[in-house]
Amino acid sequence: MDLIQPLALVGGLGLIFGSLLAFAARRFAVEEDARVETICDLLPNANCGACGFPGCISFAEKVVSGEASVDSCIPGGKETTDNVCEVLGVEPTGVDAKKVAEVYCLGTKDVAHDKFEYHGVQECKAALTFGGGFKACSYGCLGLGDCVRACPFDAIHMADNGLPVVDLELCNGCGNCVKACPRDLIRIVDAERIGKYVPCSSKDRGKATREACEVGCIGDGKCAKVCPQEAITVENWLATIDSEKCDDCGECVPACKREIIKDVPKVPVHH
Question: What is the pTM of this model?
Fold first, then answer.
């Protein structure tokens, strides 16, 4: 008999609090916009973060609320942007320009010299903590695959020569590899551009570059002197080619004694 009252009291309190929680849940519930799930289904769902948000669902929520631009999904490209616009009932925007990653280093194992043997953690960022890296060129690729591990689309792999190779068909310019490279050797570029480019990042003077790498740009400016379009500039001992000015005439190629002016890689076209 002594237990009946306490049990009744506990049961009554449980009923009261349960009712209050149920009321609060109904009263303060946030209705989910069905468009969020619809848009999320239209995205690549790689959760790459290229849009600036933690994942695809977060982007979908932000774009529905107006906090994100409809064309922020870089991997999805124009097709995804147009589909998102259709769901939101707004005019399509953006241009269909494919973006890809490009590696600016030619320092393979056989031409880029090492300062010492490295046996530490096989990560580029970790290797940099030991004397600034084991490569003699302080701008060269360390070849330990941070970019490969960061790619959510399996679009980069390490070649046997020690350099990362981008699969232009699989790459969609999300930029994760750019963020992962501690030496800033990867850039996002227009896949449809034409002409030549200099895949090197060394800003050392000629003598230092020669000692560190057999193919690094020495910035002697000979390529710039012969360019009829004035598309080449040399700054900090490094030649760069303006893709908007370059008409792919090729005059610069024989002028470069280091043979590092290359054709812009092209995305394969399947017929």
Answer: 0.80
